[in-house]
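Morning!

This is the sequence you dropped in the shared folder:
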Amino acid sequence: MRLVHESATDEGELGRPWSRPLGGTLDRLVVESDLLAGNPLGDPARRPLYVLRPPGVELDHPRELPAIYVIQGYTGQLDMWTSRSAFEPTFIERMDAMLATPECPDAIVVMVDCWTSYGGSQFLDSTGTGRYQSYLCDEVVPFVDERYPTAADRESRGIAGKSSGGYGAMVVPMMRPDVFSALATHAGDSLFELSMPPSIAATIRTLRDRYESSYDVFFERLPEADPFDFGHHGGPLEMYGYAACYSPDPARPGKALLPFEPASGRMVHDVWDRWLDHDPVVMAPRHADALRSLRRVYIDAGKGDEYYLDLGAQAFAAELGKLGVEHTLELFEGRHGGIAYRYPAAIRELALALE
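The structure's back. Tokens below.
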């Protein structure tokens, strides 16, 4: 992986409500990946990478610091971290403010882009999307360790995310315990047998009512979708994107095997079993030693999560309990969206554990 472009940005010139001065430094990098080159979807190998340094931490900082990697939910692309909701700080402003407090140890916060034209990668290596887990673990992490004052070992690295990013935060440390030793997951995709069927049923209806029960028709019309209506376009694309990650078609790179028949609505059980094999709740016993080696596991979700991912959080926590894995589970009043205010405190928990 090679650095293509770099800029250090302080967006505090205008002040509120347009921007809030950063106490630290946000480095906006552009890197070029070898592992993403030639991916089956033809998605860019050149990617943005944001690195947030605490106040007073320069590249020649004399002490090695923990690194927390933050990954995004489905459809997430990196510039969304700068999006502002009314009367609220952005995620980057929230993180910067937290890093400036004495309650949070100094840590390098790395924001990674694993977007695909199907909307996401689930942070897995797949012939349906590309080698995004390897990109994260084998390119981005060594690049950051070489360039920044981070401790270059798994004991000093954590990973955090929400929704699909929360899924990645659960499964990547299980699959790559050599890289990460702490995780924070917010409403992460889990307990597929309960959380996925409502979305699958809604997708089947949308395909029937708008796309002749055909993904071929859906993808033929998708380029004309302007504006992109998540209610009409997002559901089918999301389900196909998951399939490209969990059940890629071995005979057709970039394509997926579906766990349901679009025309009849019936489940295709051998494909569905492949999805279940990727469920963090199902994966946990297979990766018990990796989970027991983690220094911190933080799990939360809103009690009113529309996708029932609060129940997924409970189920994942229950599996950890059976395995003797120390963890924290917090359920709060909230839904799936509007919970970005919870991210910084969870990241602080990781920084404290990794310090």
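Headline: The chain has twelve helices and eleven strands.

More detail when I'm at my desk.
O.
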